[in-house]
Amino acid sequence: MAWLLKKPTLVFLALFAATWLLAKYSSTWFESPSLAWAIDYPKTWVLPLKDYVSAAMKWLVEDAGFGLFSFTELTRAIAWLIEQPYEFVRAVLATGFFDGIGRRATQIVPPLSWIAVTAAVVALGHYAKSWGLAAIVGLAFLYLAVFGQWESAMVTLASVVIAVPFGVAGGLMLGILAYRHKSFEAVLKPVLDLMQTIPVFAYLVPILFMFGFGPVSALVATVIYAMPPMARITTMALKNVDPEIVDFGKMTGCTQRQMTWKILVPSALNGLMVGVNQVIMLSLNMVIIASMIGAGGLGFDVLASLRRLNIGGGFEAGIAIVILAVALDRLSQALAARSTEYSPPPREQGFVARHKRSVTVVVILGITMGLGLFIPALQTYPEAAELSTGAFWTNGVKYLNINYFDQFEAVKIFLLTNFLLPIKRFFLGIPWPWAIAMITLIGWKFGGWKLGAMNFAMALFIATTGMWEKAMITIYLCGASVVIASIIGIPIGIWAALSPRAGKVIGVAIDTLQTLPSFVYLIPVIMLFRIGDFTAMVAIVAYALVPAVRYAAHGVRHVSPDLIEAGVVSGCTKRQILFKIRLPLALPEILLGINQTIMLALSMLVITALVGTRDLGQEVYIALTKADTGRGLVAGLAIAFIAIMADRIISASARKAKTRYGID
Amino acid sequence: MAENIKLACRNVWKLYGPRAVEFLKANPDADLERVKNAGFVPAVRGANVDVRDGEIFVIMGLSGSGKSTLVRCMSRLIEPTAGELFFEGQDLRKASKKALIDIRRHKMGMVFQHFALLPHLTVLENVAFPLTIQGQAKAAADTRAREVIELVGLGGRENYYPRELSGGQQQRVGIARSLAVEPELWFLDEPFSALDPLIRREMQDEFMRLQAMLKKTIVFITHDFDEAIRLADRIAIMKDGAIIQVATPEELVMNPASDYVEEFTRHVPRDKVISVGAVMKKGAEGAGAGLPMASKIAEIAEAVVMADAPLKVVDAAGKAVGAIDRETVINILIGRVR
Ligand SMILES: Nc1ncnc2c1ncn2[C@@H]1O[C@H](COP(=O)(O)OP(=O)(O)OP(=O)(O)O)[C@@H](O)[C@H]1O
Ligand SMILES: [Mg+2]
Fold first, then answer.
1. CA distance B213 to B216
2. Spatial separation of the C-alpha atoms in residues B141 and B127, rounded to whole Å
3. Is-contact A141 A327, C-beta < 8 A?
């Protein structure tokens, strides 16, 4: 027995072989009822956890109270508070102010004219960086107007405008508290981990219960979704403040409050702005998703088009999302960079001279508002002059489908039968007790008994709540997508690192891809491959590709130049340098990239549920449509647990690789 | 406790590692070996220091010897593992949070190795910062800030941001900022070591000019012996967290407490440290108008070497106390001491 422990690789190979055999032949067990329980988790053994959760939710909404008022009244009051600023911004940007209700309402104040809004973002672009940026964002907004996406885009923008301050402020507070109190950080960290891995749909249902169907629920979900990264980044940025500066603050006799607001936060501004950019992009992503629960806007347009199989409309709205995302990202990044570029203020005198841009925008606003009363085109972009690319996209997709249908189909079927289905069969075939044992063992091998115990508990949770089969489909779909994303992404990343020219192009491409809301990836894939596992996989691969590329490029690029020189001096060929020096040393980084890829893939699952996969994502999605809190939360937790297990195992092995190569 | 002692450390320890306090309670006089074997990082071990009012007290030692940690214990930026601290006779370790804030606001100042300027504030705002923290009105704080900015020779740069200044200028801002509150005890942790040699020299001159004017009590860290002997009234030498010797530069060179100190001071230019009084022939007769016995050899070397006979040495009162001859001086100049 002792010699076995000395050869862990051998043991694991043997265990894998055993697993494979079990997976292959366990299906015959169905025939003997005494063993069937091991392959199919018996219904009678399922813990009705989701029913408990649903019941608790019901009690909370219907009966819970704080004496003076009930829980529902509290949440409705919060909803009202959020709704007011939202309604205002939405009216200003998109709909205008009305007098009266329903059909007989008359517009008393129109929304900001498209010219004024575009002028404002141009001015902002110039203020943030340059005329170049001003041109980019100006063109982006012009596109929205000319191609008939204006009103939807403004509704989406209004949600973002409201969600971002809440997300930033909330994240900042949590982050500061975690920085101040170790104990709070210890509590917050796992919660944030969970929040970032649990699919948003899972908590959409309880939010719907509390805040009602409509934009407010969407906003609450958006804020909850966008806040964790801000909290994390805040704590990290504060911790990274130069310790000398912290000492200086103490030596000056700062109180805790002075320390936070006069020393730490301003010194950490650089990092904090990265968080703000993240909140903006996540909010946009979420606002799009949340269109399903009544946020309206561009996301709703996409969804409606997809339901009607209106290819052109879907593409048009999708492209508008892309354009809005790119514009917001560039703008907020430039503003972030500017905010820490301390330079002497302009020494010009006079209000107008100092506020040229603002004055110009206000003047344009006044003129368009005034003249808009007489010339409607100044107010609202005239419908007659709108261009539509819908027909183009429809025809394009039609053309592809007519002429290349066989090729698409061939690829699809080839991959399905030779890649996807075998993997699916493998995962579904493993008896669940054996699988739990293996997962525990893997955790123990990479991260010690603690990780082993955690894996055991989480896997057991998935089995006992009756999610086993769907979890396996989730793992299969996700795993297959991650394998393909790695096969495509890692070589691209290596290429980007080795060739500066390719690196630049690839860099821009992945930066752009990363800003796109996950929803967008679904549109072209659905058009070409219709629904099913294959479509889901392509969308997941497309969405999850970026980190694989990015981390591989980073890892290969940042191998210490000394080591490369040592390799060159000892006569390595280019090939040898790549395979013997760069790649092994970049391995930990590549592993982290794969880790991120898994996280993105899992977060995409809920969205691919729209194309009819039968995994945990679908479970969450069904729960959403049926407003079943317990079902959604339990399935969401199961997804989160899968994500957490994968994350811990891979992080631990990356750490091991790092210590093995003596990096870090 | 003597009247003129500004800050006193009594058996101050700082060990890094879990349960260090308990360990020290059980082993109050553990030696280096024991501490290390128990798994602690011995940053400061049993330091006893008296910083006198108005002196420049320099702490020296190799990198990692615990200089910064000791100074941070003195200002309670780091909580010592054991020991007592007295600031103007007040027990600093027992001071409440509020009292500590008050002491730091009004009585202590610190200058940092990497300046620690706030990047988002202008020079003026940086210097006025400690004053506004105290709650002073902006106008008064600005006036005072302008004064100290003028004092360190940065007049005209009030509206620059730190990153628009050179390293030397940034450290002047750091100095001005810590002076703005008129501290009584001034800590400087390698304030010039991030600067290149030429500017460092210039800043030392500047620093001495300021000290001649302001007469602060100063605790100054450096690991540059030239800097130490230029500035110090007394020097403390640290090794592995312990203070090995506290003495004037001259005593360190003349009577090193251990081989380590001797080794440490080997390359010190003796002529700049040793004074006439320490090497003269006591009671001997000499010629000339009389050299003050406190002057350093470097200052009188030329006169003695050029003279034909030993020269007379006088004390502060002008009374003849001995004579110094050419051979003694030359021996010191070429490093062959005693
Ligand atoms: N937070 C800490 N945790 C653990 N060990 C520490 C910590 N801070 C300092 N040390 C250790 O304490 C010892 C003394 O450090 P200190 O910074 O006081 O040295 P120093 O004399 O100021 O050195 P330098 O000249 O490099 O500034 C060092 O061995 C250092 O590694
Ligand atoms: Mg130091």
1. 9
2. 9
3. yes
Where chain A has pLDDT below 50, the residues are 1
Task: Report the residue of chain A nearest B158, measured CA to CA.
Answer: A344
Cα–ligand 2 centroid distance for B6 (angstroms): 22
End-to-end CA distance of chain B: 38
pLDDT in tens, B99-118: 999 999 999 999 998 889 99
For ligand 1, atom 13: residue with the closest CA: B43
Mutate to test the pocket of ligand 1, among B12, B13, B16 (most ligand atoms within 8 A of CB): B16
Domains of chain A (ranges plus CATH)?
A: 158-327 (1.10.3720.10), 406-660 (1.10.3720.10)
Give the orientation angle of helix A500-515 with respect to helix A468-498, to 10 degrees: 150
The whole-angstrom separation of Cα A258 and Cα A50 is 47
Element (H, E) at B91: strand B90-91
Alpha carbon distance A25, B148 (integer Å) = 85
CA distance B158 to chain A (A): 11
> Where exactly are the structural domains of chain B?
5-270, 271-333
Find out whether A135 and A332 touch, Cβ atoms under 8 Å.
Answer: no
User: Between β-strands B185-189 and B108-111, what pairing exists: parallel, antiparallel or unpaired?
Assistant: parallel
- Sheet (strand B41-52) strand order: B41-52, B5-16, B82-87, B90-91
- Spatial contact of A605 and A29, defined as CB atoms under 8 Å apart: no
Contact A244 B75 (CB under 8 A): no
Q: Quick one: tokens of A376?
A: 């409607």
Per-residue burial over B272-281, b = 16 or more CB atoms within 10 Å of its CB, e = otherwise: bbbbbbbbbe
Long-range contacts of A318-321 (CB under 8 A, 24+ apart): A318/A519, A318/A520, A318/A523, A319/A147, A319/A389, A320/A143, A320/A144, A320/A147, A320/A149, A320/A152, A320/A153, A321/A156, A321/A284, A321/A288, A321/A516, A321/A517, A321/A519, A321/A520
Quick one: which atom of ligand 1 is closest to the CA of B223?
25
**Cα separation of B338 and B335, whole Å?**
9
The domain defined by B5-270 folds into: Rossmann fold (3.40.50)
Nearest to A200 by CA among A288, A278, A305: A288
| Crossing angle for the helix pair A432-464 and A629-661, to the nearest 10 degrees | 130
Q: For A396, list phi and psi in degrees, rounded to 5.
A: -60, -50
Structure tokens at A655: 């750490």
Residue A482 to residue A496: CA distance in whole angstroms? 20
Name residue, tokens 């002008």: B318
Do A233 and A274 contact (CB within 8 A), yes or no?
Answer: yes
User: Of A637, A605, A631, which Cα lies nearest the Cα of A475?
Assistant: A605
Q: What is the DSSP letter of B273?
A: T
Instruction: Scan for tokens 């027990």, then name that residue.
Output: B91
d(CA A494, CA A555): 9
- DSSP 3-state assignment of A172? helix
Cβ–Cβ contact B200 with A under 8 A: no
Which of A36-40, A212-216, B52-56, B240-244 is predicted least confidently? A36-40
Place of tokens 């199919």: A40
The answer, yes or no, to whether ipTM is higher than 0.90 is no
Radius of gyration of chain A (CA): 27
Q: B314 touching A, CB under 8 A?
A: no
Q: What is the mean pLDDT of residues B61-84?
A: 91
Q: Compute the average pLDDT of residues B32-53.
A: 88
CATH no. for B271-333: 3.10.580.10
CA angle A422, A428, A431 (to 5 degrees): 130
Residue B113 to residue B127: CA distance in whole angstroms: 17
Separation between Cα atoms, residue B249 and residue B235, nearest integer Å: 6
Phi, psi at B221, each rounded to 5°: -100, 140
